[in-house]
Design goal:
By secondary structure, the chain is of the alpha+beta class. It is built from 13 helices and 6 strands. Helices cover 57% and strands 14% of the residues. Keywords: Coiled coil, Membrane, Transmembrane, Transmembrane helix.
Length: 293
């Protein structure tokens, strides 16, 4: 409590410390009022326990009635002092309790939202380092997928198009789409020859035959991309931990040569280090499985 008291402004701290020492005045008040309340013969017996020199000096200074009056007044002051101190301490402790409880609730809230914070962090990271740098448009999207128990979870995404940038609520199988090629070979660079706007049936058939998508998945896709560029991200043990996918709804939307030159091994290692450092703060299918989910 001393630390909390020291945080108070000086004009509040010193009065609080003064009244907080009301324990001894409170004890004195109880003893003094108790003495005043006992029968006179017992009072006299108690007084006779004092040395005769003290009693002589006291009666020469004040008479007995004056001493009783002084004793009563000081006892009353002690009772008030002790009462105020007790009330201030109780009020202060309640205030500390409420503050600690509120801070605890805030920490719980913050802890429960760590996955969302990580998603926002990675989304900002890929925007600042790649999307803005390469002047990509609302026709393009950049997504970072983390591998977890043979499934890919989107942990960061950005597009100028609000529809394309929405956080997905599903997991991506490792053996479907361009993610599979990236996972196997380390890279994908591909352009679909059909436009989904004008040749949707041909675009859909191409995706089914070449990327293993299901018909219903393609029908419900929000972003029907034509161009893809993906990079595999490995840790220091050469284990695949994530993939980074550039995609565009336009056949010429991605400048492959420019992107390939910029996305060096060092750049991919930076993403790997960031993923590993924040791994404990991200949702894990393996952890959920161990807990029975």
């Amino acid at each position: 409590m001393e630390l909390a008291v020291n945080e108070l402004p000086r004009y509040k701290r010193w009065p609080f410390k003064f009244f907080n020492k009301g324990l001894y005045p409170g004890i004195y008040s109880v003893l003094a009022l108790g003495y005043i309340g006992i029968p006179s013969n017992i009072q006299e017996m108690v007084r006779h326990q004092l040395p005769i020199e003290w009693r002589t000096w006291a009666l020469n200074y004040w008479n007995l009635d004056q001493w009783f009056t002084a004793l009563f007044i000081t006892a009353l002051i002690g009772a008030i002092w002790g009462g105020i101190g007790s009330q201030l301490t109780s009020s202060f402790l309640n205030k500390i309790y409420r503050r600690v409880k509120e801070e605890n609730e805030q920490l719980k809230e913050k802890n429960s939202s760590t996955a969302i914070n990580c998603y926002e962090l990675f989304s900002h990271y890929i925007y600042n380092n790649y999307f803005a740098k390469f002047s990509l448009t609302s026709n393009e999207r950049l997504s970072l997928y983390k591998l977890d128990m043979d499934l890919f979870l989107c942990v960061g995404r950005y597009s100028e198009n609000e529809l394309y940038r929405q956080k997905p609520n599903r997991l991506y199988p490792r053996n479907v789409g361009c993610i599979e090629t990236v996972w196997k070979t380390g890279k994908v660079e591909h352009v679909i020859p059909f436009d989904s706007e004008t040749e949707f049936d041909k675009w859909k058939k191409y995706n089914i035959e070449n990327f293993g998508f299901g018909d219903s998945v393609l029908n419900n896709m929000k972003m029907r991309s034509r161009a893809f560029l993906g990079f595999r991200i490995q840790n220091s043990q050469k284990q695949t931990i994530a993939v980074l996918i550039f995609e565009s709804t336009q056949a010429s939307g991605l400048k492959f040569s420019k992107l390939n030159t910029a996305m060096t091994q060092r750049e991919l290692q930076n993403i790997s280090h960031l993923l590993e450092s924040l791994n404990s703060h991200m949702p894990s299918l393996q952890s959920a499985s161990l807990e029975g989910f």
